[in-house]
Structures are given as structure tokens and as C-alpha cells.
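Reviewers of the previous submission asked for a worked example of the structure-prediction workflow described in the proposal, so we include one complete record here. The input consisted solely of the amino acid sequence. No template or homolog information was supplied to the procedure at any stage.
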Amino acid sequence: MNNKSSEHCIFCKILKKEMDASVVYEDAQVVAFMDIEPVNEGHVLVIPKIHAPHLADLDDETLGHMAKIGGKIARAIRKSDVRCEGMNLFLADDEVAGQEVWHAHLHIFPRFRNDGFGLKHDPQKNFQHPPRRRLNELAEKLKKCL
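From that input alone, the workflow returned the following C-alpha cells.
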């Protein structure tokens, strides 16, 4: 099992200045810095200053602020001379979704044709059109959990 404590968290070590980071932005809630294993040049991570292993561990205000800062950084990337034909904002929540560092973080990375990155899917399993009745059932389940 992955260790999700702040004691072993590489991002918490960056926040404590125990490890170097190339900081793009910082305020009272978040820090944004260059990813050391970028999808493409210009890849930035936005992390909360509190240790939160999962999306569910973040309060709405912090999560919203991460998204707001992510948007600002995405616009900055587009204004810069970094190669960028498109943009991904990506947050992986838990191992099955691709999370590797147990501190919630938002990826912002520029994309361009044939950059070699992509999410894989199986056309036989994914993106099928379920019946409206099933979509309505799922919508009701989720409404009850909000």
C-alpha cells in the first residue's frame, strides 16, 4: 500500500523547502511549480499547501482556488513561447486513476499534435451511449450524495 502521510510526501517536502522546486506561483493556499517529469515542456503542477492525499480531502474553496490558478497558468502558457496547440488540466484521484504522489495536485500541460501523450480507451467498453433511463438513475443517485 502507498504511504499517504505528509511525513513521506515529496510535495510536503517542497512546501517545507526541504526539496527544490521551480516555483511559478505561490499564495496563501497553493503553490505551482514546474513538473520534474513533464508530459511536455511547460508542464506545471498546482498543489494545496495543506496535505490532502485525495480530492475528497480538499474543501471546496481550496479545490476551486486550485482550478482558478490552473486557469491562470494555462493562459500564461498560451501567452508564452512554450510550444502549445492545446492544453490539458488533469487531476488524478487515486492509483487506478493514475495518481502517483499522495498529495492532491492539478497538472497543467501544453499539448501539440503527435506529442505522444494520450488517455487510452477501449471503444467496446468506453464512450458507449447508455439508455436515458440508466443516465437518469445515475443522476438521481449522485444528487442524493451531494
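The chain has a mean pLDDT of 93. We consider this example representative of the routine output the project will generate in years two and three.
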